[in-house]
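Whiteboard transcription, Tuesday session. T.W. wrote the structure tokens on the left side:
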């Protein structure tokens, strides 16, 4: 009977030289501990089995938190899930929050919205295998200072970095100094904005007894904010500007010389007007 040479023992080829083992093929992986049960490892897989839902339906505003909830397969119980966001015009995912999966397979996540336009969101777990959710999208709006936009028409207004109205100091103010006549400043919103907010009043350098009328015009339709605003405490105002192309701020003196103020005047927009 012919003896096979070189002999094979347990998947190893035995050499004549110094009785050393020469390891080949699958036997090498076994020797290095890379094979379990004599089988090659399967490639890591990606599973789209995480369920993600947004909590609530309020408008998404840049810089504010957006909340999510979801469920996972049993294998992820007790694991940490990551919330990722993709910003408008970008192609890279950014991790913005984490949450631990409960023993019932549920989780809660939240992250801050950013930019203007559309944020995309997903939940991800990366381990031996990767698990992820379907992508959700939210329309994101951002508060823009009115005096950062280009004035398209107007007269009698100037932008001031700090202005006091009663006990309130606004970091930015659109102010008209007036003793007679009417003044206005106009900005295009281009149908991209939904809200206007400001603090109105007379600045603290106005003469005693001064009074002025302050109003806002949306595409030529005036809304009076104060009929006869005097010195001292002002007030906060908010207007719905959905569907508006052009917004104008207007003031006119009633008594005395005054500085009529629209403090920190801003619009909430989903794109640059």
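and on the right, the sequence the group agreed on:
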């Amino acid at each position: 009977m012919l003896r096979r040479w070189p002999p094979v023992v347990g998947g190893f080829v035995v050499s004549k030289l110094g009785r050393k083992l020469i390891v080949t093929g699958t036997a090498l992986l076994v020797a290095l501990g890379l094979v379990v049960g004599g089988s090659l490892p399967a490639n890591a897989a990606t599973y789209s089995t995480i369920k993600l839902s947004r909590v609530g339906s309020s408008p998404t505003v840049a810089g504010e938190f957006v909340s999510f909830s979801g469920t996972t397969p049993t294998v992820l119980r007790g694991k940490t899930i990551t919330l990722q966001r993709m910003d408008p015009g970008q192609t890279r995912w950014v991790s913005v929050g984490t949450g631990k999966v409960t023993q019932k397979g549920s989780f809660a996540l939240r992250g801050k919205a950013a930019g203007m336009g559309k944020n995309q969101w997903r939940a991800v777990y990366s381990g031996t295998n990767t698990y992820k959710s379907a992508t959700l999208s939210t329309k994101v709006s951002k508060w823009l200072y009115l005096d950062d936009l280009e004035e398209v028409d107007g007269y009698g207004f100037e932008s001031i970095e700090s202005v006091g109205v009663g006990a309130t100091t606004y970091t930015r103010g659109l102010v008209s100094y007036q003793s007679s006549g009417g003044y206005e400043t106009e900005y295009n919103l281009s149908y991209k904005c939904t809200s206007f907010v400001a603090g109105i009043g007379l600045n603290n350098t106005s003469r005693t007894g001064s009074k002025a009328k302050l109003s806002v015009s949306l595409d030529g339709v005036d809304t009076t904010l104060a009929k006869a605003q005097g010195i001292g405490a002002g007030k906060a105002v908010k207007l719905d500007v959905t569907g508006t192309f052009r917004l104008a701020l207007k003031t006119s003196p009633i008594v005395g010389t005054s500085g009529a103020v629209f403090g920190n005047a801003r619009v909430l927009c989903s794109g640059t007007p």
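Someone added at the bottom: The helical segments are 26-31.
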